[in-house]
Specification:
The protein is an alpha/beta fold. The chain has 20 helices and 21 strands. The chain has a 6-stranded parallel beta sheet with strand order 3-2-4-5-7-6, sandwiched between helices. It is globular and about 85 Å long.
Amino acid sequence: MKQADHQYTFPHQHHNINLLWSSLFIEELTRYGISDFCIAPGSRSTPLILAAANHPKVITHVHFDERGLGFLALGLSQASSKPVVIITTSGTAVANLYPAVIEAKQSHIPLIIISADRPPELINCAANQAIDQHKIFADYPVFFAQIPTPTESIKSNYLLTTLNQGLFQQHLDKGPIHFNMAIAEPFYPEQSTINFKNYLSSLKGWDSHHALYTIYHSTQQGEVVNQNIELNAEKVLVLVGRISDKQQAMAIAQFCQQFNLLMFADVQSQLQGVINNITGYDLLLCNQSFKQHIDQADLIIQFSDHLVSKRLTQYIGSTATPIWVVSEYTQRIDPAHCVTQRFVSNAKNFIKQAHNNKTTDKKWIEKIKVYQDQLPDIIKPYLLNDQISEVNSTAYVLNHSTDNIILGNSLAIRLADMFANTNATIYSNRGASGIDGVIATAVGIAKNKQAATALLIGDTSFLYDLNSLALLTQLQHPFVIVLLNNDGGGIFNLLPVPKAQHQAFYQLPHGLTFSQTCAQFSIHYQQPKTLTAFKENYQHALAITTHNKATLIEVCISNLLTPIQLAEIKEQLQNAII
């Protein structure tokens, strides 16, 4: 904490009590180190909007669509690893944040929602734009506070201590928090101002320095109780799920290298491209001999959550091998209900205390690597074929990028997990795995990173978030959308959907391409017919220097091509004798 700056004075003159309370709220948030504020237009939220807009330490991000705004904030927070504030007006504006709030809870992303609300006398009386906003997000926020209508009869320090409590709770249990503030008129500045010096006297000098009103202290987070964790195993399989902190990820890779442990790293782990990862394990699990060899493991250790591979998740549920899960978060990570030991710890602290009194079986790992070495012979024809496909375009994007890549849900992230071997920084909304808000999330990440960014997304997800294309004008660096257009929900071709209902109720073919959409939003557009052309288009888009930084590369393929290719690869792997 910096020493208090006694030259600073929080302004005592404000146009009304609403603007004062809003200014107190915004000032305390900036003292906590928060700078990004995502704002949607609205009248009742005006005091909060003006307080944010006029604060010198606030960076504002504005969007007309609250659903997109929530995901924009989600992307900013993912990329910065810091809390991001969302300000909305009352009514359905708040409800439109629900999908982003769910994703924030499931993915441990620290969003701070401040919603303006009608005062109590305007609730349940048919007043305009008034709904019940009290705990509107149910149990998804890790903290909720109903802020009463601003009044001088409530001490100003109440507001700060309530905010500080919410921020501390978010520090302990990372996720969204919600402050629902009832605001009565007037909303806008008036000609005259009021001196609130006497009212602010209860702040005990807070208004004359830069420190938080209440400073919380807690013990070290993420430390396991056991001081000595004994692996006691010759054959250890380490699974790495979604990891956002690259230092934690690299600690896992070094741990596996030091103890000579087998590692399966998910595409979201930031470790897919490291030398000791077994790439393509999802595909190799199609081979029964490979599965039997893996099943010789004495111990499976899984770091973090949300594994993409369904085959791997199914294997975890079927094996008799003891399974340990390591995550700093306290929620249950056990979809197959088979975890034998659960360590509430970050990776570094677990690794620091882990030992193995047995010598690793190197022959076991060498045999696994023999399987891995055979995989390229099967998949290379699909990756190198100049006929453009979802498989080869996805693999190219991930394998030829070291920048930031956002993976859409459904088919895009699954193909990346199967075929890529990337050193790029990977982002995804895998907490709830929804198809909504993917474009907005990607824009938030790109705005924070201030670097070239790529988004790999399916056509249905793209259609679902078209509004967020309006945000692309805010970007200063190349932004490439690779749109996998298989004319509807291609993922359903991989599922046992009844044929009679397949198109009408699952695939929902739309027959659209998106050149005119790009023209409307001033986005550069390409529709390559070959992999060679795709590569040229992609590299050009990453190096673009024109005023408009966004490019959409539309990969148009048959809805049946990817299922056919995956079935052929699976059949070859099932029949392979290795």
